[in-house]
């Protein structure tokens, strides 16, 4: 690590490894409890998670293992970091930030915790923005400020085949719980103040995705943005969605296609797609 400022995040950021490696971002894995077994999500292949979901084995997500953040901070210090910006999933979706704060209190170097106000690539782009500042020679205050701003300004639009998994995980608002389960009616969701909220419902998958694209285009209009399409066990559909978006948002700077972390996948279910528009 050449910089004196390290950037740490958690695996709900869903950052492709090529980007995390390129920008020296340290990623601490969340945990999944599958049945009675507690595992770092980095060791949960997608096919195993899908089999467990199909078999209706209870799956819950948990913050990183005790001291996982502490050892990440120690590792950064050992490599020369004098300060750390630690950017995380909103506390409204996970207690991971509490674990990071506890580790920060024991860290050898100052740690500045940033709430991304969401998860997925909203968090991913916030961490990337901090890392860009660091690699450009910026200080910890600049990196922290930029990460906070990117988290606040980003928008995520989510398509799920069914609300079953989000309801089961307790991740949807009271309003979203009222959405019906008719197979033809597809809910479109967003994250507002850390809470998964509905913004529309559309008959048919194709119409729902077209609506998602229209909304993303409106959000990106006239702005400098980074763009991500996230999916869970739906890479082909994610690629098609990304192509649709790139035709209509040709000015996007970073364009990312990524599978969400297993912790998010367990909450949204197979076939889920999301679009993150992150102004800079």
UniProtKB/TrEMBL annotation:
Q: Which Pfam family would be a valid example here?
A: DegV
Q: Name one GO molecular function term.
A: lipid binding
- Keyword Hydrolase in annotation: no
Write the record's keywords in alphabetical order, separated by commas.
Lipid-binding
Question: InterPro entries, from UniProt?
Answer: DegV, DegV_C, DegV_domain_contain
* The keyword Ribosomal protein appears for this protein: no
Q: Could you identify this protein by its name?
A: EDD domain protein, DegV family
Source species, please?
Lentzea albida
């Amino acid at each position: 690590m050449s910089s004196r400022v390290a950037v740490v995040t958690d695996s709900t950021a869903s950052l492709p490894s090529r980007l995390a490696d390129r920008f020296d971002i340290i990623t601490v894995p969340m945990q999944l409890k599958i049945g009675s077994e507690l595992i770092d999500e980095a060791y949960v292949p997608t096919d195993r998670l899908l089999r467990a979901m199909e078999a209706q084995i209870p799956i819950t997500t948990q913050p990183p293992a005790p001291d996982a953040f502490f050892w990440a901070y120690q590792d950064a210090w050992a490599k020369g970091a004098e300060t750390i910006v630690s950017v995380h999933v909103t506390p409204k979706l996970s207690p991971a930030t509490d674990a990071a704060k506890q580790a920060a209190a024991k860290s050898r170097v100052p740690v500045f915790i940033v709430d991304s106000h969401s998860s997925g690539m909203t968090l991913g782009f916030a961490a990337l923005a901090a890392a860009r500042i660091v690699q450009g020679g910026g200080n910890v205050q600049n990196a922290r400020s930029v990460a906070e701003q990117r988290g606040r300004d980003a928008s995520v639009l989510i398509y799920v085949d069914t609300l079953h998994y989000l309801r089961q995980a307790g991740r949807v608002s009271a309003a979203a719980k009222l959405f019906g389960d008719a197979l033809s009616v597809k809910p479109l969701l967003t994250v507002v103040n850390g809470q998964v909220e509905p913004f529309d419902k559309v008959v048919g998958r194709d119409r729902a995705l077209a609506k998602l694209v229209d909304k993303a285009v409106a959000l990106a209009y006239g702005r400098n943005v980074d763009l991500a399409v996230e999916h869970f066990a739906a890479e082909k559909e994610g690629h098609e969605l990304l192509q649709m978006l790139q035709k209509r948002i040709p000015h996007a700077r970073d364009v990312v296609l990524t599978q969400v972390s297993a912790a998010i996948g367990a909450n949204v279910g197979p076939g889920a797609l999301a679009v993150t528009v992150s102004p800079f």
